[in-house]
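Section 4.2 – Deliverable D4.2 (structural model, holo form)

The reporting period included a commitment to supply a predicted holo structure for the target in complex with nicotinamide-adenine-dinucleotide. Inputs used:
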Amino acid sequence: MSHLVNRRNFLKTSVLTGAALGFQDSIQAFSTTKKEVVRIGIIGAGFRSQEHIGNFCQRPDVQITAIADPQERSIKDAVAEIVKYNRPEPAIYKNGPLDYKNLLKREDVDAVVICSPWEWHSIQAIDAMNAGKIPGVEVCGAVKLQECWDVVNTSERTKVPLMMLENVCYRRDVMAVLNMVRKGFFGELLHAQGGYEHDLRGVLFNDGITAYNSGVEFGKNAYSEAQWRTEHNLKRNGELYPTHGLGPVAVMMDINRGNRMTKLSSIASKSKGLHKYIVEHPKGGPNHPNAKLNFKCGDIVNTQIQCSNGESILLTHDVSSPRPYNLGFRVQGTEGLWQDYGAGGKTQGFIYFEKEMKHSHKWDNTEKWLTEHDHPLWQKYGAAAEGAGHGGMDFFVDHAFIECVKRGTEFPLDVYDYASWYSITPLSEKSIAEGGQIQLIPDFTRGKFKTRKPIFAFGDDY
Ligand SMILES: NC(=O)c1ccc[n+]([C@@H]2O[C@H](COP(=O)([O-])OP(=O)(O)OC[C@H]3O[C@@H](n4cnc5c(N)ncnc54)[C@H](O)[C@@H]3O)[C@@H](O)[C@H]2O)c1
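Output (structure tokens):
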């Protein structure tokens, strides 16, 4: 039996049995009736959505009823992915960038998964909530600070919740460390680091046919992310992709649930990597038109964040330097320290607990610790998650989204996480433009963070 079949049966017999968490704040009563099946509309049908589609199609409790994307190629690939699982073809909305609004009018859509280019996320999330559809939104940062408030205000007004689909919060090593944080191994947390340190040079440019490592074009001559993402690196200097690094440590530090981020300061290195890539690429060269452009985003952008309970966070954004993938997590408490140097593997980290290691001042490899403190969610669903994207963590983020929509329970990563995490991008741009000046991070909960209780991944339910 394949693991896909295992996953399906496993879900059938296990996910419906878990106890639901109680509602805890104002965006509560979005559903009084429990759903057995969630009907999903996909907005943005490119590479990322196809990963979600693969996960959803393996669940008997999800139907994908409609897809909106102005690009024929993405629609074709997304539909092929659905058909591969013998699921019915969804309704298609492909007449331009606003056709998703027609998808939002459908009665057979309960929730939407937004996987469009960054500049669309908040606009489409707001439209979805206004139409009564629950948005799950992919990762990135805001273009403007105001959009973060607009999303919060819309969710509070409509009482439609939003889930921030930050998959790295569910990475196996990250969740084991969260488990150890909660068990007190680290003592009181002092500082954390994370970031997006991923060499994307071969993603930000291509030949318009093959997505990776195939050329030096971007914009309308390119394919997938190079069509739209590169433009952000060209025109903006800031922490463009904060949530993969921030989400996991924000959860460990109870951000928006007893704690909050209060201010930040960012500085950027010079920008060299993307220009050098174009000049040195066999299809580029010094005379290629793209070699004449000045990419505004510094190759390395560091953002320091202060939290109201006294911790600091350092985020690093680096997508244009030669380096193996590593999000650079570090969690420092009064009693110990975790530092990762890999991509989520159990052995790819150092750990040190002063008391357990008898003040040895010597690192231990993480394997033993991450195995012993494997999060209950991974213990329960590890086999089911096998084969899902990004080492299995995508299974968990989609699982949480669907389970909450079905049960009408609060999302573990919610609209306040969305707003505060997304706000880092425009605030870091402003800080850099002002020579590293401190920027105040708004309290998007308007004081509720003081009484909101942490709810992310307690137990083995979702
Ligand atoms: N969480 C993760 O691990 C992860 C991984 C990859 C990408 N992402 C995020 O997912 C999102 C999508 O990235 P991708 O790699 O799929 O990019 P992509 O370019 O492959 O797909 C984006 C799709 O959105 C479509 N689109 C453009 N404007 C639209 C509109 N107005 N309405 C509907 N669709 C529209 C495009 O035609 C394209 O098909 C981004 O936010 C990206 O940062 C997250």
